[in-house]
Amino acid sequence: MIFKKTNLDGEYIILPEKLEDERGYFARVFSMDEFAKLNLNTKWVQNNTFFSKKRGTLRGLVYQEKPKEEVKLIRCTRGEIYDIAVDLRRNSKTFHKFTGIVLSHENGYMHYIPKGFAHGYITQKDETEVLYQVSEFYSPERAKGVRWDDPSFAIKWPTKPEVISEKDNSYPDYK
């Protein structure tokens, strides 16, 4: 795996090193040793998958409050997403900044998002599936969100949202 730091403190894009032959390829998507060398989370307590039928489906921007903050490892296993992470850590030098990256089944990239970030994505293709691992169990009382189009973040989504849940569309601006 190749770990590339992003412009946000503690966030990485992880690229698979594909070993290819006539059958296809093999690539590692997690190694406790490699993650630990970079002081990244190695404990995953839950794996989740999301399937979206239509291009333009927007999910998020969501996070969990302390003490149930989550580290997330996001991977698109079918289709394509534009994945967003917003740094909500008030003491961070990258506070209130965001990163957007394309994850697809074709590029195999993964997005490592540390604690204290809001996360969301928009599908770029019909029939898209996303798999992600989290470091904390889901905690409904700690689950929060911020508005996907909050003007203070100035996120430039590449696709106009066509499908958004009522819940995701009702989150407030970040204060």
Task: Outline the biggest β-sheet.
Answer: 6 strands, antiparallel
Q: Sum up the overall morphology in one term.
A: globular
CATH topology: Jelly Rolls
Low-confidence stretches: none
Total number of beta strands? 14
| CATH arch. level architecture | Sandwich
Question: Distance N terminus to C terminus?
Answer: 37 Å
What class would the helix/strand composition place it in? mainly beta
Task: Report the portion of residues in β strands.
Answer: 35-45%
Average pLDDT, rounded to a whole number, is 95
CATH homology-level superfamily: Jelly Rolls
Helix content: under 10%
**Count of alpha/pi helices:** 2
GO molecular function, one term: dTDP-4-dehydrorhamnose 3,5-epimerase activity
Subunit structure: Homodimer.
Function: Catalyzes the epimerization of the C3' and C5'positions of dTDP-6-deoxy-D-xylo-4-hexulose, forming dTDP-6-deoxy-L-lyxo-4-hexulose.
Family: Belongs to the dTDP-4-dehydrorhamnose 3,5-epimerase family.
